[in-house]
Amino acid sequence: MVAKAVLQNVLARGITTFGIDVASRRLLWRDRVAVLLYHDPKPETLDEHLTHLKTLCDVIPLSEVASEGNGRPRAAITFDDGVAGNADLLPVFVKHKVRPTIFLCSQFVGRPAVHWWLLPAAKKAGIERLKRLSNRERLAELEQYHVDNYLEEDATGLSAKQLEEMRPFVDFQAHTRFHPILTRCDEQECEQEISVCKAEIESMLGIECEHFAYPNGNYGDREVRFVKAAGYKTARTCDLGWNDSRSDPFRLKTIVIDDDATLPWFAAQLTGIPVFLRYVRHARNLSGYSPQF
């Protein structure tokens, strides 16, 4: 961990020293929209990030991602999974007057349930290995550990009370029911995870669910087809890049932000370079597309 922090600091210093951050804003970001992806940052970290971000760009809701710009860079703030810790961020959202989008797994919020990758059994079995199994194989392996009985205090998702308190300040949208890797699902599993999630969120919160995020960034033509058929207006990937009115609304690009990023590392991540290098290492291509399996 120390070596990783040192490498991050060196790369961050290099990016700012040579003006790469400024150049990326002028050449790549311009008046386009950077959709930032978080999961479970601490309030003090997000507060620091947003304070810096608002000196660089306008912060807009995800629903305005295709709107015409005014010449300034723009950013939309998104969170995946709907973990309980997101409730602690509400004062930060209010302070900075930003309206983020939180993509919910509809069967892990508002009830005593645990996101499957947060289970001790999943960690022991190897989360990355489980992701690569077919959905049926993954579920069968997890069932061996009897992981389907939880108490309220075990829940890892936002509670019904938290969802209600946050609803005036947050756009809650869809991230499947149980967060499987969609490309490892069969046709029926994939379609139901996408369409039923929409219906469940709308029923739970009394809102219109229009936006979707592909779990783990894994998707293909089949998943895009199901998202369109379900009636969503956009879908966010984990592919690296910026968006404008010409972007494919069902393949919105993003910039993944580390939840614990220091301010210099956050500034470096906004250039897209750290994510690009990570994808090159794992996917071994220069496309900027997130690794697929």
Automatic annotation (TrEMBL):
CDD domains: CE4_NodB_like_5s_6s. The keyword Signal applies. Residues 73-293 form the NodB homology domain. It comes from the Bacteria. Its main location: secreted. The keyword Transcription does not apply. Gene3D superfamilies: Glycoside hydrolase/deacetylase. It is found in: Secreted. Pfam families: Polysacc_deac_1. GO terms for cellular component: extracellular region. GO terms for molecular function: hydrolase activity, acting on carbon-nitrogen (but not peptide) bonds. InterPro entries: Glyco_hydro/deAcase_b/a-brl, NODB_dom, Polysacch_Deacetylase. GO terms for biological process: carbohydrate metabolic process. Keywords: Signal. This is Polysaccharide deacetylase. It comes from Caballeronia fortuita.
